Amino acid sequence: MRSKSIDTFCPVGPWVVPKQFIPDPHQLDISLSVNGQIRQKSRTAHLIFSIPQTIEYITKHFTLLPGDIIATGTPEGIGAIKAGDTVEASISNIGTLVNQIVREQ
Predict the structure, then answer these.
(1) Which of 25, 26, 53, 57 has the CB geometry, 3.0–4.6 Å to 49, for a possible disulfide?
(2) Is residue 28 part of a domain?
């Protein structure tokens, strides 16, 4: 839990695309690179649970409200990052998020 629950973690944006603009959420290419080198490359078709299954499970335990974001996990290929690294995450038909890793002073 410690490695996933730190202030500034889970960046999203610079915009969130509403579901009506994504014809099939199970047919999106996803990738992540660190300093220009691909570390993760997959498709949402490879999710263990479909989007409807995920929503069904979550709503048995929590109330979802408009604007809530569900994080579905990550494909294989995770690894350490360090201050100075540039991380680029892309999802087809949605966009690319680029962040530089900085050490908090």
Answers:
(1) 53
(2) yes
Name the residue range of residue 46's domain. 2-100
* Residues sharing a CB contact under 8 Å with residue 73, sequence separation 6 or more, in sequence order: 47, 48
Local confidence band at 1 (pLDDT 50, 70, 90 cut-offs)? very low
CATH number of 69's domain: 3.90.850.10
19/92 Cα distance (integer angstroms): 14
Q: For the whole model, what pTM was predicted?
A: 0.80
pLDDT band at 4 (very low <50, low <70, confident <90, very high): low
22 by Cβ neighbours in 10 Å (0-12 / 13-18 / 19+) ranks as middle
Note the pLDDT of residue 15: 78
Give the contacts of 96 (CB within 8 A, at least 6 positions apart).
Answer: 88, 89, 90
> Per the domain annotation, does 105 fall within a domain?
no
